[in-house]
Amino acid sequence: MSFDLVFFGGTGDLTWRKLMPALFQAFRHGKLPAGGRILAVARDERSDADYRQFIRERFVDVDSSKRPSDDEFDRFASMLHYRRMDLSQPTDYAGLKSWLDERGADTVVLYLATSPHLFPVICEQLGSAGLNGPKVRVVLEKPLGHDLSSAQEINRVVRSVFSEQQAFRIDHYLGKPSVQNLMALRFGNALFEPLWNRQSIANIQITLAESLGVGTRGDFYDRTGALRDMIQNHALQLLTMIAMEPPSTNDADAIRDEKLKVLKSLRPFTPASVARDVLRGQYKAGTVEGKAVPGYLDEVKVPAGSTCETFVALRTEVQNWRWAGVPFYLRTGKRLAARDAQIVVNFREVPHPIFPGTPRANKLVIKLQPEDGLELHLLAAKGAGQGDALSPVSLDLDFDKAFPTDRVGAYERLLLDAIAGRLNLFVRSDEQEQAWRWVEPILDSWAQDASDLKTYAAGSWGPPAASAMVARDGFAWAEEQ
Is 142 marked within a binding site? Predict the structure, then answer.
């Protein structure tokens, strides 16, 4: 299958930092279909050779195990091309169409790795130029909009040019191997399904923690914040995959129908419940990995006196038969104690403990990063001479060890799926809009009053009030258990 993959924003940070290394890994693994061309478009004047050198220089920053040899890069770079485009000029789109039509590839993938405010104008110009035929797919990078109304407007324009089957709304967390294994864990094994309900599960925690600060992206981050950057998309997508009902098939729409049902079942927020069940914070100076780091307000390009949140913790419930009364806790933040993305399923305690000591409930930990695997925490007897006391033990599955061959990374998997036309791991427009609809009361409440913004020391696990919120239900975050 021949393909043409076009990156709008071809010299941008996302393209050279994430997308090109992912494509190289697909090439190295022999997964990238033969006969493909990769075209980067941007405003700069460059030749193909200039662009290839631009990418070569940036591959120096790639992890050493994934860095290409000179020969490998030369073979990969032969696929790379560059074209100057002004995204507002119809003649430039006509020129792009001519370039694509010269060969007539089987599939054309147009990846919009630009600021979301450019999505409507790009899509309208693509439609006017006739770059929306049945063999064309458009990939939309998150964040898709800034709120519900902007997301709806982007989707309105996209739908006016492309069919829903042509639109690939990307959330790179859905490409992570551990996230894909959520489906296998729940629907490919008989072990957990009888326990996957309110009778057996006490609470579920989703943590997306980063030890890094905002770096040089202070101006972008200050317009976005942790709720828009991580909760509205990544965390909610993980929640839907944990809480969804079994789909009838592995078809993309069957899966996305069930995810949408979860989003519609989330308990809606009111001003009172926002005040009670949502916490926002902002990091101040502290120590991370033994190194002193500045507070958010002292970061580059952050406006003085900003009230942007760098931490969010919230409590919600899925109001349906399976999950009624089970709290779901979501949290994310920058400059936290560790880089740690995980889902913790805490099971209920045994109904009548017969062993001495404090009962300890079982839990399943689904590790997303930096490790990739599963841990099942149990209680076991130590052996002779220990009496009846039980000790915690864990069954640890490290996917990297279980599958020692090169594993496919998130962007690598999603790029290959876009080329192949597989929509299972992409977000449908109604899902994405429902997620915005659910977080909008929080945004509205915060816009009216910023007095609830807490601070936390860099290198901690966030404001102490986040622990108090969980303790209110008689539970604790995973690191406090």
Answer: yes
